[in-house]
Each structure stands twice: as structure tokens, then as C-alpha cells.
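Repro:
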Amino acid sequence: MLELRTSERTMLRDCPQKWYWSQVEGLEPNRTSPALWFGTAVHEGLAQWYCEGFERGPHPAETFSEALRAIAR
């Protein structure tokens, strides 16, 4: 017997094709939130800046820009 959560039943009712792709095929939308891209780039910039020891890494703005370009590809 197939068990469906409430969210799956709603998705199946609203769009059977979306339910099939998601639940049977295991596919997910190929997009992420711009806010997540931004946060990832900020994190990467600060992680490179605050490296171990007394020396600092490259300026966060440089690493931030590089990370944004890499994520946008």
C-alpha cells in the first residue's frame, strides 16, 4: 500500500505530473533562492578572510565577488 503525507496528497491533487517527477522520479526543481547564493558568497568571503593564525586572507570583497561569479555559472 502506498503511504502519502498530506503535502504529497496536496501536490498529487494540484499537479499529478509534479507529484510524479518529485515522488517517483526523485527530481527537484533546478533553481535556488537568490538569497541563498548571496549568503553562500558572504560566508565564503569571510571564511577566506578569517583564516588560521595572525595573517588575514584576501579581502572579503574579492572572495565574495569570485564566489558570486562561480555560483552564477
